[in-house]
Amino acid sequence: MSAPIRVLVCDDQALIRTGFVTIIDAQPDMEIVGECEDGRTAVDLARSLHPDVVVMDVRMPVLDGIEATRLLAGVGVEQPVKVLVVTTFNLDEYVYEALRAGASGFLLKDAPPAQLLHGIRTVATGAALLAPEVTRQLVGKYAARIRPAEATPDDVALTPRELEVLRLIANGLSNSEIAATLVISQETVKTYVSRILTKLDLRDRVQAVVYAYRRGLVT
């Protein structure tokens, strides 16, 4: 048997934090290594406990989830930690900044338990997770901020097919949905995604989504 996924939960609302801990700790392939209520403690615990995934709230005292994520997974961090941001999207105006800070993905707090568990497992494998409904809301709510007026796709070093795949990723489609849309195999989609990330020097699908929005590749 493989080792269980070690999870640190950080949320300043005790009821939500306890709920997450209860759900996660009940899974045979997961274990809770710690919990806390502010971002500063999350950073300290993550550095000492070395969890596989940190489930991170955005709005917290002492240090918010964005800054905590940047310290744990941002540019220049030698041993980045995988961070899954779980947030009430309609209230948090800084989810986009959390992604830029290095989060591996985010979910809504009202997502069913199965989706939370799937998110943790996905992020733990090194993949990125963006809930499609959240991605689509991100376009509408943050389009002006994400997409600079001067951005153009002319100098993007991707083939037309790769650009097409990138746009579909940015619209929240999974590999299987992209495969169905383009009538190609999922393995081919994976190859395109890998090429896109390599060419653009991006870490994961989350960064690809942010890149696409900033460069005006999504309408």
UniProtKB/TrEMBL annotation:
The modification 4-aspartylphosphate is found at residue 57. SMART domains: HTH_LUXR, REC. Residues 151-216 form the HTH luxR-type domain. The keyword Transcription applies. CDD domains: LuxR_C_like (cd06170), REC_NarL-like (cd17535). The keyword Transcription applies. PROSITE patterns: HTH_LUXR_1, HTH_LUXR_2, RESPONSE_REGULATORY. This is Response regulator transcription factor. The lineage of its organism: Bacteria, Bacillati, Actinomycetota, Actinomycetes, Streptosporangiales.
